[in-house]
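TICKET: design request
STATUS: open
ATTACHED STRUCTURE:
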Protein backbone atom coordinates (compact mmCIF):
# COMPACT_ATOMS: atom_id res chain seq x y z
CA UNK A 1 0.00 0.00 0.00
CA UNK A 2 1.42 3.37 -0.97
CA UNK A 3 1.62 6.25 1.49
CA UNK A 4 -1.10 8.18 -0.38
CA UNK A 5 -3.47 5.18 -0.23
CA UNK A 6 -2.88 4.94 3.53
CA UNK A 7 -3.62 8.66 3.98
CA UNK A 8 -6.79 8.38 1.86
CA UNK A 9 -8.08 5.48 3.98
CA UNK A 10 -7.39 7.42 7.16
CA UNK A 11 -9.20 10.53 5.95
CA UNK A 12 -12.16 8.65 4.48
CA UNK A 13 -13.42 7.06 7.70
CA UNK A 14 -17.19 7.38 8.29
CA UNK A 15 -18.35 10.38 10.28
CA UNK A 16 -21.45 11.61 12.08
CA UNK A 17 -22.61 14.84 13.68
CA UNK A 18 -22.69 14.86 17.46
CA UNK A 19 -24.10 17.27 20.03
CA UNK A 20 -21.50 19.16 22.00
CA UNK A 21 -23.32 17.96 25.14
CA UNK A 22 -22.35 14.36 24.27
CA UNK A 23 -18.76 15.41 23.71
CA UNK A 24 -18.90 16.99 27.18
CA UNK A 25 -20.00 13.71 28.78
CA UNK A 26 -23.81 13.55 28.45
CA UNK A 27 -25.39 10.30 27.24
CA UNK A 28 -26.84 9.90 23.75
CA UNK A 29 -30.61 10.15 23.98
CA UNK A 30 -31.70 10.60 20.36
CA UNK A 31 -30.41 9.50 16.98
CA UNK A 32 -31.64 10.80 13.64
CA UNK A 33 -30.47 9.54 10.27
CA UNK A 34 -30.55 12.04 7.43
CA UNK A 35 -29.26 11.93 3.89
CA UNK A 36 -25.46 12.04 4.07
CA UNK A 37 -23.83 15.37 3.19
CA UNK A 38 -20.86 13.73 1.47
CA UNK A 39 -19.26 10.34 0.85
CA UNK A 40 -17.84 9.92 4.37
CA UNK A 41 -20.92 11.15 6.25
CA UNK A 42 -23.06 8.30 7.62
CA UNK A 43 -26.06 10.62 7.92
CA UNK A 44 -26.31 9.95 11.66
CA UNK A 45 -26.98 12.90 14.00
CA UNK A 46 -26.72 12.24 17.73
CA UNK A 47 -28.28 14.35 20.47
CA UNK A 48 -27.98 14.20 24.25
CA UNK A 49 -30.87 13.57 26.57
CA UNK A 50 -30.36 17.15 27.79
CA UNK A 51 -30.60 18.77 24.34
CA UNK A 52 -33.84 20.77 24.30
CA UNK A 53 -34.00 21.85 20.63
CA UNK A 54 -32.20 19.80 17.97
CA UNK A 55 -32.34 22.70 15.50
CA UNK A 56 -30.48 24.95 17.94
CA UNK A 57 -28.02 22.31 19.15
CA UNK A 58 -24.38 22.84 18.14
CA UNK A 59 -23.10 19.73 16.35
CA UNK A 60 -19.54 18.63 15.72
CA UNK A 61 -18.31 16.13 13.16
CA UNK A 62 -16.73 13.05 14.75
CA UNK A 63 -15.71 9.62 13.49
CA UNK A 64 -18.68 7.28 13.72
CA UNK A 65 -16.55 4.65 15.50
CA UNK A 66 -15.72 7.17 18.22
CA UNK A 67 -19.44 7.70 18.87
CA UNK A 68 -19.85 3.93 19.19
CA UNK A 69 -17.08 3.94 21.80
CA UNK A 70 -19.02 6.60 23.74
CA UNK A 71 -22.24 4.58 23.60
CA UNK A 72 -21.78 0.99 22.34
CA UNK A 73 -25.54 0.48 21.85
CA UNK A 74 -25.26 2.64 18.72
CA UNK A 75 -23.70 -0.35 16.98
CA UNK A 76 -27.11 -2.04 16.99
CA UNK A 77 -28.77 0.81 15.04
CA UNK A 78 -26.04 1.52 12.49
CA UNK A 79 -27.99 -0.06 9.60
CA UNK A 80 -31.26 1.77 10.23
CA UNK A 81 -32.41 3.62 7.09
CA UNK A 82 -32.35 7.31 6.28
CA UNK A 83 -35.37 8.91 7.91
CA UNK A 84 -35.01 6.99 11.16
CA UNK A 85 -35.79 8.95 14.34
CA UNK A 86 -34.75 6.94 17.39
CA UNK A 87 -34.80 7.44 21.14
CA UNK A 88 -32.68 5.58 23.70
CA UNK A 89 -34.97 4.36 26.46
CA UNK A 90 -32.80 4.09 29.54
CA UNK A 91 -35.36 2.22 31.67
CA UNK A 92 -35.67 -0.63 29.15
CA UNK A 93 -32.13 -0.34 27.75
CA UNK A 94 -33.30 -0.30 24.12
CA UNK A 95 -33.67 1.93 21.10
CA UNK A 96 -37.19 3.01 20.20
CA UNK A 97 -38.34 4.12 16.74
CA UNK A 98 -40.27 7.30 17.47
CA UNK A 99 -41.95 7.42 14.05
CA UNK A 100 -43.16 3.80 14.08
CA UNK A 101 -43.71 3.76 17.86
CA UNK A 102 -41.92 0.45 18.26
CA UNK A 103 -38.75 -1.11 19.60
CA UNK A 104 -35.77 -1.30 17.23
CA UNK A 105 -34.55 -4.88 16.83
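STATUS: resolved
RESOLUTION: sequence designed for all positions
ATTACHED SEQUENCE:
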Amino acid sequence: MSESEHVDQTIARPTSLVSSQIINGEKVGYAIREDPRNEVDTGWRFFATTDQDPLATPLEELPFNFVILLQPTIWSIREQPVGSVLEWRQHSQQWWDVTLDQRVD
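CLOSING REMARK: The longest strand covers residues 41-48. Confidence is low (pLDDT under 50) at residues 1-10.
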